[in-house]
Each structure stands twice: as C-alpha cells, then as structure tokens.
C-alpha cells in the first residue's frame, strides 16, 4: 500500500511537470522540428516561433529538446535573476570536438570557474579595459590606417585588415607581442580561426550537432577537424617558444602567467591541477577566436553602414572633427562624442552578430515563468529577440542611432542592449571589445571617408548577413578615401 501511494504521488507530480513544460511545435520522430527551421538562419525561425508560442517555448533539434528564451524581459530574468540555474554551458558535439571540456568557452564546473577566474584576473593585470590595452589598441590603429592608405581610395575587402588588427590586440595581451600583417603564419592562424567559426554555423554542422554519428561523412566536419588540429599545433609551437624564454620575474602576457602557475603546480606535486597544457592551449584558442572574430565583424558592419548611410557618416565625422580635430582619439573622448558612441552601439544592436548567444544548460530543475524545465535542458537565450524587441526599441529593424540618445543629444545606456549576453556567462572580453570598437572606429572615421565602389549606389549595398555561426556582412568591397586634404596638413 505504501509503495502504491508513493507511485501515485510521483506519477501525479510527473504529469503536473509534463503539463507545465513550455509549449512548442509538435516534433516529428527522429527529425524533431528540423524541417520547420531555416538551417542557414535558425535564429529567424526561432524568432518567428516566439511570436506564436510565447517567450518560453520548446523545439526539438533532431532528438534533442531545447528551451528557447525570447524577448528582453525573459532573457534578462533567466540570465541575471536565475543566473545559477541557467549558468552552465551546453556543449554541443562540435563544441566538444573543439575543446574536449577544456578552456573557458565550452567547459563547466571547476574547470570553467578556474580558467575564467585566471583569465579575467590576468587579462586585467595586462591592462584589459585599462590604459595598458588602450595603448596597444592605439598602436595597432596606426598600422591599420597604413594598410587602408595603401589602397589609395580604390575598392577593397575590409575583412582581412580588420581581422589582423583585432587579432594583434589580443595577441599582444596573450603572447606579449604583436605580429606583422605580412607574417604568413599569422595570416594562416587568423584566416583559419575565422573560417572555422563560419563553418561552425553551416547547415551541415547543425545537422551534425543533431546526429553526431554522421560526422565522418560530412565535408564541413572533416574540414573543421583538420583546421582545429592545425590551429592547436601552431598555438603549441608559440607556447613552446615562450616557455623556452620564460622569465618568472618579467611576464610578457597571459601565456607566461599560465606557464608559471603550471610550473609551480608541478613543483608542488599537485597532480589535480587545472593548469596543464590542454587547458592552456584551448584557453588561448578560445581567447584568440573570440577576441578576433566578434570585434572585427562588428567593425566591418560599422564601415559598411557608414558607406550605406552617408548622412550618418557626415554627423560622426563632424563630431570627431569638432571634438578631437587632428590628435589621436583616446577613451576619455568617448563621453564627449555621444553621437559617435550611439552609432557604434546601434551597429552592435542591428548587426546582432551572435543571434542565439552560446547555448546554456540548466544546473537543476527550474520553475521559470510558470513552466517546469528539467535539469540538464539545453537553453537558447535568443539575443536577436532582445536586440530587436519591439517593446524596447522604437524602430527595431532600422539603423537608428537615436535609440541611444536623449532629447539633448547625449548618450543614454539601454538595459536591453545585450550583445555580450549577461549573467555568469557574459563575454569575458567585453571591456576590451568596447575599447577596440571605439578607438578603431573613431580613428578610421577621422582619417577616411567610406564609400561604395564606383558604379555602386548606397542603396545597392546589401545588409543581408552571410551564413555562419557569427553574422558577418555579405562579401563586399568599400573605398576608404583619405580625408587628409579636408582637415589634415
């Protein structure tokens, strides 16, 4: 009798939980809701579904159940107010292939806590978000401007120069030195990282994440694995070179700091230390990829939008000329350049370059907004639905810097501005990225006028993003016309 009562109570609780699960489209056997998704742009399909099923709903990606969070209020509540419950990373098959549970981006538990704590502390020690990194960025703007000048106002693809510039900023902090743009190994490393990120968002890799046993037969998966091995081999060589010249009295960058911690753990006989070679190489790989792709992609959108909307470019340049003039821009100038700052923020909002964030997973059973979500459930915080939330933005689908300006024309922060995500998993390098965006953008707009190629009108510049894990602009060329004759001697 006792067992019968326990069974009835437990089955009743289970049925209540089942009834309280988030709604969603009915899945097909095996395929789930795959046929209802645009695999090239799944974030758009999920955004549309949110309008039908609400701000918390369920989709099945193949056999895997995923809870999607949509809209500013819901995403913020989950990531900030329920930070612990939604705080783990869901490590999909392709991300596990990248990291094997090491590093920062795709790890959990003590490994994630230790690597994040060490990286954040060390990056700050080497000036992230402070004067130290400001000087590194300003130095890099000089090299970048020289590259742009070499095109002499003729059309060129901005992607590689911007990738190299942002890569060098993180390289200077991680390795202790920058690379020459002409260095073939550096070029290979940057290009490989960007191609890997692009391939990670391809339809075939999304299918692989649903059905991992297909991996060997998928060309994109084989290509990513090849690039991964090449990348890790190159990082290991760079780390070995630094280890050979290591001076514990004079650390050059994050790698040196990690190597010192590793050697100290070895001396102490700590066999359980997390400061081992795999964590070092994957952590460096994480920082290099994240610190390059997202910032350079945003800068590409900035320049494309300036060419698309010349009247906005006019206002930015008028403000820069009036406030800064000929001298080099510094971070202290940002408060006196409200329109320029608003344009950068509005670019981040509209470009929406990580539309689904990185997936989370629940650390325990959660009752959230009236729904029951089981421990271990994969969760997508749909950032595109936050950055284009109609309740938060006056004109969410258009480029409108006024979103970040008050009636007097001063910059205003918006809570719904969440391109770096939020909560425990907020972007590690947010302060560095903000600094890079401001200094690179103002320096480039100070020296160049960006226009479409001859014969191409502003209206013909396409704002449709390319397919990829992050949303890059579609392939295009711009002209960077020197403003020297206008304001410089």
UniProtKB/TrEMBL annotation:
Gene3D superfamilies: Cytochrome P450 (1.10.630.10). InterPro entries: Cyt_P450 (IPR001128), Cyt_P450_CS (IPR017972), Cyt_P450_E_grp-I (IPR002401), Cyt_P450_E_grp-I_CYP2D-like (IPR008069), Cyt_P450_sf (IPR036396), Cytochrome_P450_fam2 (IPR050182). GO terms for cellular component: endoplasmic reticulum membrane. Keywords: Coiled coil, Endoplasmic reticulum, Heme, Iron, Membrane, Metal-binding, Microsome, Monooxygenase, Oxidoreductase, Signal. One of its GO terms (biological process) is organic acid metabolic process. Residues 225-252 form a coiled coil. GO terms for molecular function: heme binding; iron ion binding; oxidoreductase activity, acting on paired donors, with incorporation or reduction of molecular oxygen, reduced flavin or flavoprotein as one donor, and incorporation of one atom of oxygen. Its main location: endoplasmic reticulum. The keyword Zinc-finger does not apply. Its cofactor is heme. Heme binds at residue 427. Pfam families: p450 (PF00067). It comes from the Eukaryota. It is found in: Endoplasmic reticulum membrane; Microsome membrane. Residues 1-15 form the signal peptide. Belongs to the cytochrome P450 family. This is Cytochrome P450.
């Amino acid at each position: 009798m006792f067992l019968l009562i326990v069974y009835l109570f437990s089955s009743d609780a289970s049925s209540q939980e089942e009834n309280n699960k988030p709604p969603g489209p009915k899945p097909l056997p095996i395929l789930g809701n795959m046929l209802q998704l645009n695999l090239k742009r799944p974030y758009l399909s999920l955004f549309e579904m949110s309008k039908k099923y609400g701000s918390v709903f369920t989709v099945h990606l193949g056999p895997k159940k995923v809870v999607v969070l949509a809209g500013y209020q819901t995403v913020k509540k989950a990531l900030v107010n329920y930070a612990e419950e939604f705080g783990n990373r869901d490590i999909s098959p392709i991300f596990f292939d990248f990291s094997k549970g090491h590093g920062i981006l795709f790890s959990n538990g003590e490994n994630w806590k230790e690597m994040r704590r060490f990286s954040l502390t060390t990056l700050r020690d080497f000036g992230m978000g402070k004067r130290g990194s400001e000087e590194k960025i300003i130095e890099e703007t000089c090299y970048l401007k020289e590259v742009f000048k070499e095109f002499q106002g003729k059309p060129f693809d901005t992607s590689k120069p911007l990738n190299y510039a942002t890569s060098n900023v993180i390289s200077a902090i991680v390795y202790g030195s920058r690379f020459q743009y002409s260095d073939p190994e550096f070029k290979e490393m940057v290009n490989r990282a960007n191609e890997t990120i692009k391939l990670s968002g391809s339809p075939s890799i999304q299918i692989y994440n649903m059905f991992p046993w297909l991996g060997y037969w998928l060309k994109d998966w084989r290509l990513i694995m090849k690039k991964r091995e090449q990348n890790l081999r190159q990082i290991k060589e760079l780390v070995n070179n630094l280890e050979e010249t290591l001076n514990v009295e004079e650390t050059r960058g994050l790698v040196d700091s990690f190597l010192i911690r590793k050697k100290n753990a070895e001396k102490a006989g700590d066999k359980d230390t997390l400061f081992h070679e795999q964590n070092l190489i994957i952590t460096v790989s994480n920082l290099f990829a994240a610190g390059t792709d997202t910032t350079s992609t945003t800068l590409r959108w900035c320049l494309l939008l300036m060419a698309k909307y010349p009247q906005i470019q006019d206002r930015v340049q008028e403000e820069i000329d009036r406030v800064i003039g000929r001298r080099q821009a510094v971070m202290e100038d940002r408060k006196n350049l409200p329109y320029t700052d608003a344009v950068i923020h509005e670019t981040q909002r509209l470009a929406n370059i990580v539309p689904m964030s990185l997936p989370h997973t629940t650390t325990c059973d959660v009752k959230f907004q009236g729904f029951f979500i089981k421990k271990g459930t994969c969760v997508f915080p749909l950032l595109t639905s936050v950055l284009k939330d109609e309740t938060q933005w006056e004109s969410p689908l258009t480029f409108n810097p006024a979103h970040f300006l008050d009636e007097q024309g001063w910059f205003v922060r918006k809570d719904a501005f969440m391109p770096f995500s939020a909560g425990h998993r907020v972007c590690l390098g947010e302060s560095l990225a903000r600094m890079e965006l401001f200094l690179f953008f103002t320096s480039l707009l100070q020296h160049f006028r960006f226009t479409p190629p001859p014969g191409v009108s502003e209206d013909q510049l396409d704002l449709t993003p390319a397919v990829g894990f992050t949303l890059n602009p579609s392939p295009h060329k711009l002209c960077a016309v020197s403003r020297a004759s206008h304001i410089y001697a």
